[in-house]
Specification:
419 residues, Metal-dep_hydrolase_composite, Amidohydro_3, binds fe (iii) ion, binds N-(iminomethyl)-L-glutamic acid, globular, Metal_Hydrolase, eight-stranded parallel beta sheet, single chain, zinc
Length: 419
């Protein structure tokens, strides 16, 4: 056998291919994780073209040539991480809210007083498209540095036609200019802007009117809504999302983040791709998510940062055989971090997920949460070479040694994007 690669990774200590085919992995199956020891991976034209043993490279039982050879020195190698829920594009920052949090002002009260999401809306409206591209590029670079190679990005800090389109166009530019894969979500229904304070239904109608333009310019694939006390009710969310679905968008929902309104049940009823947060989700909601195959996308960084006493019931969801994914929820208010590795630690300590479950949740299932399960989240023959080489001896190590960055080298579509 002879091989000719652009890049050869050899002397891999542990290789997690996460190669499970095109379907997501449900709760109980998430315990079984295949680990290849002493492996090697060959990459050609941005794709994985060979997965073999290190002996084949060292003993040259096959004729292997490569433009570049990387000695992995016994380290852990995994698929690039997928972050399926972020609010990537925004103006300004909200560090002054930390003192309010410390004084015990609840998140939804800050919003009610015109702060929170609404203060980011003001700053985003005032920031130029060019500046937003620059700012988001900085965050994308940092996400790459943490091992993330695919990310979802929501709008929702415009809440008017002009600024929502501006945010979405920023994402479209970044899809072309940046090496990160970015999946775009329209979250025009993120809060009620001051102008529509007394007329939330009219506001939702105006956001629905944008969908045509969004489709015309191909600006988003998903539509999302913040279904929450003081924001949008179940009824409003049902109406809004149903109309988006009719227009051909896939659905996501910020569900049961703070109050248990029944967002999970609504996601199941509407056949949403994912329901996100799920901190206050009921038994019935968990059962329905599992039945309908809606991805339960958990964001433990947010419950941690909001100081919630109880996190999402991940164990019950896994027990119910739901499809569980993890994300950062990166945003300037409820979770200002790009560090998905830290979220993996929170998933272990607060959600009581096992390391095996956590790895599925940040690769295979995270990719399914944003509709790219057939292309991303695995190291497999003829899949895109999105690969992380970690300064860690094994996969248990990442959630264990916490709040630092373990990446050694990050490869996206066969190219080194961080080293
Ligand atoms: O997912 N909950 C709504 N949206 C974000 C927070 C956005 C913000 O505070 O700016 C979230 O937590
Ligand atoms: Fe969010």
């Amino acid at each position: 056998m002879s091989h000719n690669f652009d890049l050869l990774l050899y002397n891999i200590g542990q290789l997690l291919t996460m190669d499970v085919g095109t379907e997501p992995v449900r709760g109980k199956q998430m315990q079984k994780l295949e680990v290849l020891e002493h492996a090697a991976v060959g990459i050609k034209d941005g794709k994985v073209t060979w997965i073999g043993s290190n002996e084949e490279v060292v003993q040259a039982t096959s004729v292997i040539t490569a433009k570049e050879k990387m000695d992995c020195q016994g380290k852990l190698v995994t698929p690039g991480l997928v972050d399926p829920h972020t609010h990537l594009v925004f103006g300004g920052s909200r560090e002054h809210e930390l003192a309010l949090k410390q004084a015990g002002v609840p998140y939804l009260d800050i919003l009610k007083q015109g702060g929170g999401i609404l203060s980011t809306v003001k700053m985003t409206r005032e920031t130029s498209e060019e500046e937003l591209v620059k700012k988001a590029t900085f965050h994308l670079d940092r996400m790459h540095s943490y091992g993330i190679t695919t990310v979802e990005a929501k709008s929702g800090y415009g809440l008017d036609w002009e600024t929502e389109l501006k945010q979405l166009r920023v994402v479209k530019k970044l899809q072309k200019s940046h090496t990160m894969d970015i999946i775009s979500t329209f979250l025009g229904a993120h809060a009620i802007p001051q102008e529509y304070k007394e007329r939330p239904d009219d506001f939702l109608t105006s956001m629905l009117e944008l969908l045509g333009q969004i489709q015309e310019e191909d600006l988003a694939q998903f539509v999302d809504i913040f279904c929450e006390t003081g924001v949008f009710s179940i009824e409003q969310s049902r109406k809004f999302l149903s109309q988006a679905k009719e227009k051909g968008f896939e659905l996501k929902i910020h569900a049961d983040e703070i109050d248990p309104l029944g967002g999970a049940e609504l996601a199941a009823e509407l056949g949403a791709r994912s329901a996100d947060h799920l901190v206050g989700t009921s038994d019935e909601g968990i059962k329905r998510l599992a039945e309908e195959g809606v991805v339960a996308c958990l964001l433990p960084g947010t419950s941690f940062y909001l100081g919630k006493p109880t996190p999402a019931r991940a164990r019950d969801m896994l027990e119910a055989d739901a499809i569980v994914a993890l994300a950062t929820d990166f945003n300037p208010g409820s979770c200002p971090t790009e560090n998905l590795q830290f979220i993996m630690t929170l998933a272990a300590l607060q959600l009581r997920m096992t390391p095996e479950e956590i790895w599925y949740a940040v690769t295979v299932n995270a990719a399914h949460a944003i509709g790219v399960g057939a292309e991303r989240g695995q190291i497999a023959f003829q899949r895109s070479a999105d690969i992380v080489l970690w300064d860690a001896p094994n996969y248990l190590y990442i959630p264990y040694h916490y709040a630092v960055n373990h990446t050694n080298t990050v490869i996206k579509d066969g190219k080194i994007v961080y080293r």
